[in-house]
Amino acid sequence: MLTQTKVKLHTLLGDYPNVKAFKSGQIKSDIVELDFDDVKVPSSAFKPLVREGKYDLGELAITTYLLAKTYNKPYVLIPATVMARGQLHTLAYNPERGTMTPKDLHGKRIGVRAYSVTTGVWVRGMLQELYGVDFTKIQWITFEDAHVAEYKDPAWVQRAPAGREITKMLLDGELDAAILGDKFPDPKLKTVVPDAEAVNKTWAETHGGMPTNHLMVIRDQISRTRPDVVREVFRMLRESRALDTASQGPLDPYRFGVEPNRRAFETIIEFAHRQSLIPNKFSVDELFDETTRALET
Questions:
Q1: How confident is the model at residue 296, as a pLDDT?
Q2: What are residue 58's DSSP bridge partners?
């Protein structure tokens, strides 16, 4: 009987509790060897992943993957969520310059790192669905381009002057609001959505789970020629996630398999298309190949 050779995968992955056992080598494999790149902030390496094909296996934001697929980058999605969260608590304003709620956003200047970042796509889509906010009536101010070089921002997006910083512009009143991430860099800042965490929870309960941010992708040539490697990576990630019991439950953010993630995928595809990120709406099944589509929990 022939034995397949062990495959070494140059890998991009952040430090999260749900992947700790995967990264530490606690989860063993006879056919996969993982070579982790020393990158402190995984999103900083998304550009070399999709522009240069730097990694064999990598964490990638779902919107970046949709853009990568649109422009035929050589990766395929693995339905293994490594980062997910509520989104509306990331949208901040400075209360020293007056109050702001979602109904006040039309005509305002809102900062975001890049128009294509997945958190921004979720926030715009959720604001539209929950509060009737028309994202085309907002001036979006960005600070960098998309990870995928071929993508160009729509007309309602403007680049901040070179050298400017998003938080300072918000504090100085040059921005009316900004998408800043999980933890605000200044304690005076408040969420534009009142009681945002409660709204996030309700969204998750009524939309098939917490919004998905980052999943894993693998080089499509590996998936075609070594489906056993793909299945092994999925097994290792799943077993690593099972060892992290802190966030498991009915709103488990780290969902594995196509079906548990299907509604989140459908939603982000719809939002990305509506927001002029992708020209055509993929079906969920188109995001995968024969091997990765079959991966289940």
A1: 86
A2: 12, 217
| Domain residue ranges of the chain, discontinuous segments joined by + | 7-85+211-293, 88-206
CA distance 140 to 159: 8
**What residues form DSSP beta bridges with 83?**
214
- For the chain, the farthest-separated pair of C-alpha atoms sits apart, in whole angstroms, at 73
Cβ neighbours of residue 228 under 8 Å, at least 6 residues apart?
4, 31
Per the prediction, the chain carries an average pLDDT of 95
Instruction: Quote the radius of gyration of the chain (alpha carbons, Å).
Output: 19
At residue 41, the pLDDT reads 95
CB 211 within 8 A of CB 85: yes
Please give the helix or strand (H or E) that residue 291 lies within, else none: helix 290-293
- Which residues have a Cβ under 8 Å from the Cβ of 89 and sit 6 or more positions away? 182, 191, 193, 196, 197, 200
Tell me if 7-85+211-293 shares its fold with 88-206: yes
CATH superfamily, region 7-85+211-293 = Periplasmic binding protein-like II (3.40.190.10)
How far is 195 from 4, CA to CA, in rounded Å?
Answer: 53
- pLDDT single digits (tens) 94-146: 999 999 999 999 999 999 999 999 999 999 999 999 999 999 999 999 999 99
Is residue 167 within 8 Å of 186, Cβ to Cβ? yes
Buried b (16+ CB within 10 A) or exposed e, 134-147: ebeebebbbbeebb
Give strand pairing partners of 92.
Answer: 178, 191
Q: What is the pLDDT of residues 234-278, one digit of tens each?
A: 999 999 999 998 777 778 899 999 999 999 999 999 999 999 999
Q: What is the CATH number of domain 88-206?
A: 3.40.190.10
pLDDT per residue over 2-19, tens digit each?
456 789 999 999 999 999
Please state the pTM of the whole predicted model: 0.95
